[in-house]
Amino acid sequence: MQPPTLLNWAHPHATSAESGADLASAQTAQRQQDTEVARRLVSASNVPILLHVYRLNKAAQGIYRQFYGALSSSNVAFPPVALFFVQFHRCSWEQRGRMSGRLIVLSNRLADLHTLDAGGLSVALGKLLREHGGLWLGWSGLITAETNGENRVERSIDGNVEYLCVNFSQKEHDGYYKNYANGQLWPLLHQRVDLAEFDGSGELIYRAVNKRFADTLTSILDDDDIVWAHDYYFITLAEELRAAGVMNRIGFFFHTPLPPSATLAALPNHESLFSALFAYDLVGFQSHEDKENFLSYVRTYFGDQAVEGSVVTRRGRTLVDVFPLGIDVENFRAFAQSQGSQEALQRIQQEYSRRKLLIGIDPLDYAKGIPHRVRGFGEFLKRFPEFRSCATLIQVAFPASDETNSCTDIQSEIESLCGALNGD
Description:
This protein has helices at 20-43, 47-56, 61-72, 80-94, 120-132, 170-189, 201-218, 237-243, 261-264, 270-274, 288-302, 329-336, 339-351, 370-383, 407-423; strands spanning 103-109, 134-144, 154-158, 161-169, 226-230, 249-253, 282-285, 307-308, 311-312, 318-322, 356-363, 391-398. It is α/β, with parallel strands linked by helices. The N and C termini lie far apart (82 Å).
């Protein structure tokens, strides 16, 4: 169908409205017109016209909002021209070169960038944010009364890094954080489906919290800002941002492994959840195995045509690649050579000078296999009793930055195993 009126369409401005009622009426009319234009874009078949429309109407955010909202909520394939419309929006970013905007990082928890024990995420991002500046948005760790629709954000500044903190209500904490993210996604991604507790209520709250973070972002984003979301807490974030008309570049990084397709399929409504990753421009993984597992999943559930090399083309062009997470070597070297570290080393050397040490330092979660390590050490002493008098296992276990539901159970199990081993 040929839409001749689109060529001359321009987004009207309602700034001249004299009253609140006039403004509301103008906004309602605008939304209706946006919906009609989006409908025509979906049904159109003339690519040059669509490109011309976009170039003439760069301020037509309403079209994009309505269009991408419809595209994101549908599982059916749109006409090729409709997909091309989204691709044109998103590919245009790649032609801008290096952006001068802010780096905006999202993670479930905020942390102190100046400490080495703040967790892998903080260590990985600390140097980048300290040197180049940016904004970090995340949960404060606090649980407050119900938000009643308010989206209050607390701001603080440390050098050239701005922190934005949101609090969770008890419902958000239990549904988004404990139930869905840590009770379902965490064990699934670590191939411990036997520990997952699947139910439908958690997903709804998970999506609602992602939308809340997206709403916070849309109120502060500049056109050239780059958004970088971290880990399984924000799988649906970009989808919410696209539905709100955000066209910034958005990246996502998995700090966890990604299991094979058969494991991912154990999650109820898995296709709807993982297809939300297609709204990102870049999805990063820790290893090539994780990347291939994701691309295999896309081929299995969305068809071979949805993957071109390392690019997923289901809703646009999402590049999938590998970015192994490293550490700030210089900071760790300086910490190891500091006076406090050297004094601690001397104490350990004096106390255990006649023993062979096995040292483990891990977060207190079941993915690290600490109970298995303790059992393995006990089995070693049974098979080689001559080491009982000269071998010591020192296991340092600290609470994970995002504690899973079974953290307390693991701690009790480890304490029981160590007590039994020392009592033998």
